[in-house]
Design brief:
Elements lengths: L2 H21 L2 H14 L3 H25 L5 H24 L2 H21 L4
Helix pairs in contact: 1-2, 2-3
Length: 123
């Protein structure tokens, strides 16, 4: 891996880690677009790579948040089961989608949720 790519990966990791810890959205919002734009990864590979990074990132942030009493473990238990099962199926669908379709879905989700948060914005 060239040194310039290592620097890009470090920068994306730093930004993604901070945004993930603060907003819970580091992979999808920061890493996937950065991998596509700066490292020229295809959308599918950017998504798959970002998902692999979520595990250590989430473990570190969860450790800190749990120590602070911020994690609702009942919600975690129920949501993690359903999310894990459907993530398995979603990964299968990822293989059959074109990069263009996946990019459109990704962009639409970001815009819809982003607008909702900006316009309705309950904290």
């Amino acid at each position: 891996m060239p040194f310039s790519e290592i620097l890009i990966c470090l920068g994306v990791g730093i930004l993604g880690g901070v945004i993930a810890a603060l907003c819970g959205v580091g992979g999808g919002v920061v890493m996937v677009p950065a991998f596509v734009l700066f490292l020229a990864l295809p959308q599918k590979q950017a998504v798959a790579t970002s998902l692999a990074i979520i595990i250590p990132t989430a473990l570190m942030a969860t450790t800190q948040n749990a120590r602070s009493g911020l994690v609702n473990w009942k919600i975690v238990a129920v949501t993690a089961i359903s999310a894990s099962v459907f993530a398995y199926f979603g990964s299968g669908w990822l293989k059959s989608m074109s990069n263009e379709t996946l990019t459109r879905i990704f962009g639409t989700v970001l815009v819809v949720f982003g607008l909702r948060m900006l316009l309705i914005g309950k904290a």
